[in-house]
Sequence to fold (295 residues):
Amino acid sequence: MSSDYDELLTATIQHLEGLKEHGVRHVNVTPETLAALAKPAPRGGASAPAAPRVPQTFRSPAAAQKTFAPAPALVAPPPLPTTPKLSPAELAAAFAALRARALACVKCPNLAAARQNVVFGVGNLEAELMFVGEAPGADEDAQGEPFVGKAGQLLTRIIQTMGLSRETVYIANILKCRPDTPGQSAGNRPPTPEEMATCIPYLHEQIDLIRPRVIVALGATAVAGLLGKTLGITKLRGNWQTYRGTPLMPTYHPAYLLRNQAMTEKRKVWEDMLAAMEKLGMPISERQRNFFLKG
Fold:
């Protein structure tokens, strides 16, 4: 099987997994695309068939049309800083300066025009554990704080069950502005590769200043933004990765658990949290270890 074919297949799988993560359950496929997919894979040195056009418009179960961005582009993070960690006073000053730059940012004119607030981040500047999500939603845009909607409330409960709090960890997103949704009165969309590439330097600087011991990436977009890997969250979830020398645990986004209430899925995310706790050397009770296990 040719490398071109492998790359096309991997990209298609990742694209569909990303759509599934965002709640899409139905995909419109043209007869031409179906015919192309029905062809056998090329063998040996045969060239791969031309990639069928991937439709950008899909139908939700309610038949409401939504447009989704392509898979995020690979964005290499900058080199790991070698300077000593700042003192608390220096850290607070550096963070305030970074926050001021982010709040005044208009590099994405469409996002700057549509946003209510820049959602910079929240938590302890000396946190050992950092959570990174995708982008603000409507609730986050209104309040200027990440993860405050239904998915955020679930994340808060997960953090509290770990024996921590929002005040002891740090929470941020790949994007600091809510992706605009022109023509839509509700709903969200994932960031485009261009938006991610423009905004993610702010997140790199946040991580450089905080220097957490462990990062938890919530969902496929967070993983793609931090690691440049687009293999799909179902393949990476639960397997330790490395972000510039820092252990990184990919896991499902809390929004996924709101859509899929299966105990098995909840247990997968909780196992990822247990792994993060173990990496940090946190005590784990038997009650914590047994969450979401069948009696």
